[in-house]
Amino acid sequence: MTTPSSPLTHFDAQGQAHMVDVGAKPATRRTAVATGRISMQAATLALIASGTAKKGDVLGVARIAAIMAAKKTSDLIPLCHPLALTRVAVEFGLLTADNAVQCTATVETVGPTGVEMEALTAVQVALLTIYDMCKAADKRMCMTDMRVLEKHGGKSGSFVA
């Protein structure tokens, strides 16, 4: 249970979970950047890099999945506000020294609440899609290091990790 002075905002005065009322907050430009990685065998990374994975263009499909997931975050995360996103950009880096793929998602909106959850959801679904498309070749893939790198806009201002 939380108290009125608690920084946790998804609880009412009785300690029950509720969706925060953002109706009175001004709409401002909000941006969040999140990242994560999936580690794999070198041969799996080579399949992704060469575009010869049996299921096709792994990173292309993962990019579309990430964008779709960002748009559906409020359907996946309880108490998350539905937002009209103005931009979702997803980038992948092949980390050959680490046998990993790094995913970075940038999400933007003009609204009364931030987009950190949308950016994190985009990254996680992108990495899950990579796993799904490559699991026949490598079941030991491991997703790690998901985190918000930065956020801008809103009452709390900017955060840069």
Automatic annotation (TrEMBL):
<dbReference type="InterPro" id="IPR023045">
    <property type="entry name" value="MoaC"/>
</dbReference>
<feature type="domain" description="Molybdopterin cofactor biosynthesis C (MoaC)">
    <location>
        <begin position="19"/>
        <end position="154"/>
    </location>
</feature>
<feature type="active site">
    <location>
        <position position="132"/>
    </location>
</feature>
<comment type="subunit">
    <text>Homohexamer; trimer of dimers.</text>
</comment>
<dbReference type="Pfam" id="PF01967">
    <property type="entry name" value="MoaC"/>
</dbReference>
<keyword id="KW-0456">Lyase</keyword>
<dbReference type="GO" id="GO:0061799">
    <property type="term" value="F:cyclic pyranopterin monophosphate synthase activity"/>
</dbReference>
<feature type="binding site">
    <location>
        <begin position="117"/>
        <end position="118"/>
    </location>
    <ligand>
        <name>substrate</name>
    </ligand>
</feature>
<feature type="binding site">
    <location>
        <begin position="79"/>
        <end position="81"/>
    </location>
    <ligand>
        <name>substrate</name>
    </ligand>
</feature>
<protein>
    <recommendedName>
        <fullName>Cyclic pyranopterin monophosphate synthase</fullName>
        <ecNumber>4.6.1.17</ecNumber>
    </recommendedName>
</protein>
<dbReference type="InterPro" id="IPR050105">
    <property type="entry name" value="MoCo_biosynth_MoaA/MoaC"/>
</dbReference>
<comment type="similarity">
    <text>Belongs to the MoaC family.</text>
</comment>
<dbReference type="InterPro" id="IPR002820">
    <property type="entry name" value="Mopterin_CF_biosynth-C_dom"/>
</dbReference>
<keyword id="KW-0501">Molybdenum cofactor biosynthesis</keyword>
<comment type="pathway">
    <text>Cofactor biosynthesis; molybdopterin biosynthesis.</text>
</comment>
<dbReference type="InterPro" id="IPR047594">
    <property type="entry name" value="MoaC_bact/euk"/>
</dbReference>
<comment type="function">
    <text>Catalyzes the conversion of (8S)-3',8-cyclo-7,8-dihydroguanosine 5'-triphosphate to cyclic pyranopterin monophosphate (cPMP).</text>
</comment>
<dbReference type="InterPro" id="IPR036522">
    <property type="entry name" value="MoaC_sf"/>
</dbReference>
